[in-house]
Amino acid sequence: MKMKEYEAKEILSKAGIRIPRGLHIKKGVEFMVTPAIREAVVKAQVEVAGRGKAGGILMAEYDQIPKTVEQLFNAEIKGVPVEEILIEEKLNIQHEYYLSITIDRSKKAPVILFTTEGGVDIEEVAQKNPDAIRKAMVHPLLSTIPGYTLRYLLNGAPKEIGQVIQKLYTVFMTQDAILAEINPLVMTPDGLYAADGKIILDDNALARHGITENRDLSERERQADAYGFSFVELSGNIGVIGNGAGLTMATVDLINNLGGKPANFLDVGGGADRVRVAHAVRLLGKMPDVKVIIVNLLGGITRCDEVAAGIIEAGVGQKIIVRLAGTNETEGKALLSSKGYLMLDTMEEAVKAAVEAAS
Amino acid sequence: MIYADKKTGVIVCGATGNQGSFHIDRMNQYARSVGGRGVVAGVTPGKGGQEVHGVPVYDSILQAAKNQDASAAVLFVPGSAAGDSIMEAADAGLDLVVAITEHIPVHDVMKAVTYAEFRGCNVIGPNCPGLFSPGEISMGIMPAHLASRGPVGVISRSGTLTYEVVHELTRAGIGQSSIVGIGGDPIIGQTFADALGQFAKDPETKAVVILGELGGNLEEEGARAAELPVVAFIAGTTAPPEKRMGHAGAIVTGGEGDAVAKIERLKKTGVPVADRLSQIPSLIRELL
Description:
Chain A: GO terms for molecular function: ATP binding; metal ion binding; succinate-CoA ligase (ADP-forming) activity. The complex is a heterodimer of chains A (359) and B (288). Chain A is of the alpha+beta class and 359 residues long. Chain A folds into three domains: 21-89, Dna Ligase, domain 1; 95-209, ATP-grasp fold, B domain (D-amino Acid Aminotransferase, Chain A, domain 1, 2-Layer Sandwich), CATH 3.30.470; 219-358, Rossmann fold. Chain A has helices at residues 5-14, 52-56, 65-73, 122-128, 147-154, 160-174, 219-226, 245-257, 274-285, 304-314, 329-338, 347-358, and strands at residues 22-26, 39-44, 57-61, 76-77, 80-81, 84-89, 95-104, 109-115, 133-137, 177-188, 191-194, 198-201, 230-233, 238-242, 264-267, 292-299, 319-326, 342-343. In chain A, the strands form five sheets. In chain A, strands 7, 8, 9, 10, 11 and 12 form a six-stranded antiparallel β-sheet that branches. In chain A, strands 1-6-2-3 form a four-stranded antiparallel β-sheet. Chain A has a four-stranded parallel β-sheet with strand order 14-16-17-18, with helices on both faces. In chain A, a hairpin with a 4-residue loop joins β7 (95-104) and β8. Chain B folds into two domains: 9-124, NAD(P)-binding Rossmann-like Domain (Rossmann fold), CATH 3.40.50.720; 142-287, Rossmann fold, CATH 3.40.50.261. In chain B, α3 runs parallel beside α4 (106-118) and α6 (192-200) runs parallel beside α7 (218-225). Chains A and B meet through α8 of A and α4 and α5 of B.
């Protein structure tokens, strides 16, 4: 789950990384900014890439802050309404650095990226000047980054940045983060500040940090999550239900490759019973664009007769094309054919039929 | 076959839960049908002294390993506890842990896998259907009736996709030596490269099918190091970026892990990639 900027900065601040003086405000709530802030940066708290360029970050002198805040609350940043704003003191920037920690999947370890060329898109630096980026792994059972790793990363940059890297590493490891990034990390006459902060938490570890609801999910994805489905909305007209992520993904791919347009990805998970299958079918039945639903299930622990009963129980209006194989296949097929459902033996036949029915 | 065989004694963790107890029964039915040892002990903390389908239950993996002759474990424990179970199994001196569990925090996996490998214990998974060697052993949840014994190894990041391909292979008369579900998480123990290395040492295996998906670059890494001929299939070629497709590891981030680019890189290393699952049997037949 993505943390908003102000939330990420609170976490950084608690870990001892300095953040600019500022105030987080919500739409419709009165606020007062200390006159000590002569010049402010007013930042929309929206999940939009390229937020600054899209008009989500505005500068304001102290007496212009209320007007600027109002202006930003009334704006949309790439179509996203602004509900929260962070007002921060403008920093006296001498130099900008980039620092991030993520997980290297093949090395199975945290990986730290640091460059003295911060403040810009890191992918751009990687292309134009790859030598400027320093990259180092840390053994995952270590809580302290070894000195030689820090010296390598810094590459001659001021030593106090090493302390920030260590603090960010502690945040990364203790918060179950999959990304912790400070871009830019700013050097001022007064020392180092995290001018922006980005933290993404591992969805599988939210509970142990007291987070009960994953905000990143859409309403329909949230409903699906409550039933134990994996669900992603796409934009087509063929509803897809499968069991297992790989098989469901392969079904979505095959629909696309045969010229159809999948409306979604829905993995009912292992051992789905009648009730869960009925929920899944109804969820797709409620999507206005869905013209036909394909159910592609290969039963290991999933029983085909349960699946068949669930499909019938859902009773949705759309045409349903079924491919069932595995445990209790015969019983499941008998149940469905008695109600006149279209059943096909292989995944390819079923997908072809669905693509035809939807076009 | 690789990793385990008929003689392997297995400990099941999370033995008294629904899944654990159901699959102890299935694994032992299979073991009986092939004359293997199967599950010799179960573990659920606080339930030591009970029995599940005739299998004695212990409070800890260490106790189970002391009392029964076992060298491997299969985990059905909840995600919040599974990282600890992997380390406990490695500490008890086991050689192999198959972690079926989904939704283990990724930091737990990272630490537990590192620790287990340090102790000389291989981890298969997490978030996987396990290991199945036809005629030898079932360590996980794969349906036994789809498989048949033969010269092809299968390595996969996904459960049902594996069953689909094994089903297709069997129908085409092509048997399998071992089927390894390496798991759908961002960090896993045994990778494509590791399992391919095991297959290379197995005299029975002549070719390997690798079933990958978007996210990461383990497929390419494996294909580059492969000593045996390989056929690949990659799921998720039409998935939207930055969206997680069911598996925690099935996500394209910052351009890395894109399925189409992955296929291009595999083809460059000379690996035939099937556009559709149904093409796999004929592609693999050409390599045998």
